[in-house]
Amino acid sequence: MDGTGEEGYAAFLAERRGEILQRIAEAAARAGRDPAEVALLAVSKTVGVAEVDLAWRAGYRAFGENRPQELARKLKGAAAYPEMAGARFDMIGNLQTNKVREVVGNVALIHSVSSARLAEAISRRGAARGVTSDVLLEVNVSGEQSKSGFSPDGARAALDAILALPAVSVRGLMAMAPAHDMDAARRVFSGLRELRDELAARSGMALPVLSCGMSDDFPIAVEEGSTIVRLGRTVFDPSYVLG
Ligand SMILES: *Cc1c(COP(=O)(O)O)cnc(C)c1O
Question: What is the pLDDT of residues 158-177, one digit of tens each?
Answer without folding.
Answer: 999 999 999 999 999 999 99
